[in-house]
Write a structure and sequence with these properties.
By secondary structure, this protein is an alpha+beta fold. It is 37% helix and 15% strand. It is globular, with a radius of gyration of 23 Å.
């Protein structure tokens, strides 16, 4: 059956582990995630250099190696402990601590062969020649390793980890969204903010450092204030499938490993509950996807490409549930590097999420169509908000966001998207078609409603306000091979689109252009 969508476009001017014998057994679902992660990571472990070999930011990945250490220590078979200790020393050898005043002080090299970003030939560029968030990615992993496996490690190695975390905390505390140069870590940048609170608070408590403790407690309070300030209980980095996975990791790690009197430890449970209520509200069990819009998305179809959030369905319920791509999918082979570490906090996350949310995450789609309206705020110093709306029915869902900004958020930002079942017979989920706005202006008024998406660029003076560009993906091969052709929105499988766009000229369709994974 073809669905009608009136598409209007308007152009406007775990516990401590004393030994392997006494370790806590993982539940079946978490163990499945753990084992697949270790299978993949084992296959790319360079046992000579004791790093994970993965050609992403260089020949080896320091971050992937940190995630692997937790798996080695939990499994602790054969030479696992020996390799874990060697890898742990290697990770800390990659921490950049020579230049105390640098923007990269306390963060980690992306690959051990990477030079320090302090020369004309390799100059400092945030998120390119250095990544300040690796203090948090690797730092939270070091916290887990000590909390779970301290008794397996030599005292000297434990002290090395503590010192490393002190360096990381110092560098992390300097970041305020504008300093160092080009920094963007504000309390609204949710995933590193949640991880930073754990790293700084944990090492502060461990070393009885009041400066660290006070900073972490302040940020734990600010994070909750921002979360509640908009009246919608939303994170500033909203509806981001990959980073909701990192948020859940950070929240569960705060709950399990954070100092008991730390504000972030106390606040994490409330945020986790409300976050997963919102995830459940956006989840379409029939299509196997979250409705948009997405503040950040690498994939628009989580049954085809991995998002870290998918691994929480896997680790809490089993791989037969939730938004799961094929096991050999390239993004999953990237994300699964963290799977072993995530599996150790699955029970913590599952115990916090309410029973009715668990039911919604694992049951078939049986409800009537629903409408969501959420206010997003990412700064306590201004009243600026964004509005996200979603309309979700079984075979069709629409997401949209309103923003009034001066800078385009880039190709991770998805302010308007329509998903539909382009082939309902496809298994295990229907094949999902989607059309996604690629925003060319930074002020956008996009609103979702029943069978309808309305989009405008209200500020006609902004560059790009005179064109609307969409990515179209998820067209079944049988439809194309049946003699059909894509010429726009006028003929699509299982979807009827009516476009109202006065004053706009229809432009040709280009095939083969890549938008992120699609």
């Amino acid at each position: 059956m073809r669905r009608l969508i009136n598409f209007a476009v308007v152009l406007a001017a775990l516990s401590l582990v004393p030994s392997i014998a006494a370790r806590t057994s993982l539940p079946e679902a978490a163990l499945s995630l753990f084992e697949y992660s270790m299978q993949v990571q084992d296959s790319r472990y360079d046992s000579h250099y004791n790093y994970i070999w993965y050609q992403d930011k260089g020949p080896w990945s320091v971050r992937f190696t940190a995630w692997y250490v937790a798996g080695l220590l939990y499994r602790n078979e054969g030479s696992d402990l020996q390799h874990a200790k060697a890898a742990l020393e290697n990770i800390m050898a990659c921490q950049m601590i020579e230049d105390f005043d640098s923007a990269w002080y306390g963060t980690f090299k992306l690959s051990p062969d990477q030079p320090t970003p302090d020369s004309v030939l390799y100059h400092p560029k945030i998120y390119t020649t250095y990544d300040p968030n690796w203090r948090e990615f690797i730092g939270t992993q070091l916290v887990q390793i000590i909390e779970e496996f301290e008794s397996l490690l030599d005292d000297e190695l434990v002290q090395m980890v503590e010192t490393s975390l002190e360096h990381a905390a110092i560098g992390a505390m300097r970041r305020n969204g504008s300093y160092p140069e080009d920094d963007n870590l504000t309390i609204g940048y949710s995933n590193p903010q949640l991880m930073r609170a754990l790293v700084v608070g944990w090492i502060g408590n461990r070393k009885n450092n009041d400066t660290f403790i006070d900073f972490a407690n302040q940020h734990g309070d600010l994070t909750l204030q921002l979360f509640q300030a908009n009246g919608s209980n939303t994170l500033g980095e909203y509806n981001a499938p990959t980073y909701y996975g990192m948020d859940t990791w950070a929240l569960a790690a705060n709950i399990k490993y954070g100092p008991k009197n730390a504000t972030m430890t106390k606040n994490a449970e409330f945020i986790m509950v409300e976050l997963w209520k919102d995830i459940a509200a956006h989840y379409n069990q029939f299509l196997g996807n979250l409705a948009g819009p997405y503040d950040r998305a690498y994939t628009r179809d989580m049954t085809e490409h991995s998002a870290i959030l998918s691994m929480f369905w896997w680790g809490m319920y089993g791989r037969e549930y939730g938004l799961q791509p094929p096991k050999g999918e390239s993004d999953l082979l990237f994300d699964i590097a963290q799977g072993a570490a995530l599996s150790l906090v699955m029970e913590t996350a599952k115990n916090v999420i309410p029973a009715d949310v668990h039911e919604a995450l694992t049951s078939p789609f049986t409800s009537e169509p629903r409408f969501l309206n959420k206010t997003i705020r990412e700064d306590l110093s201004t009243d600026y908000t964004r509005i996200a709306t979603s309309w979700i029915s079984k075979e069709l869902m629409i997401g949209a966001e309103q923003v009034d900004e001066t800078k385009n958020r880039g190709d991770q930002f998805v302010p308007a998207i329509v998903h539909w079942a382009s082939d309902k017979d496809h298994k295990p989920y229907p094949y999902s078609g989607f059309l996604s706005l690629y925003p060319s202006a930074s002020t956008i008024k996009a609103v979702a409603g029943p069978n309808k998406l309305t989009i405008s660029y209200p500020n006609s003076t902004q560059q790009g306000a005179d064109i609307f560009t969409f990515a179209l993906s998820g067209i079944p091969p049988s439809w194309m091979l049946g003699g059909n052709r894509i010429t726009g929105f006028d003929q699509l499988p299982c979807l009827y689109v009516e476009v109202d766009a006065p004053g706009l000229e229809k432009l040709p369709v280009t095939y083969g252009e890549q938008l992120r994974d699609h």
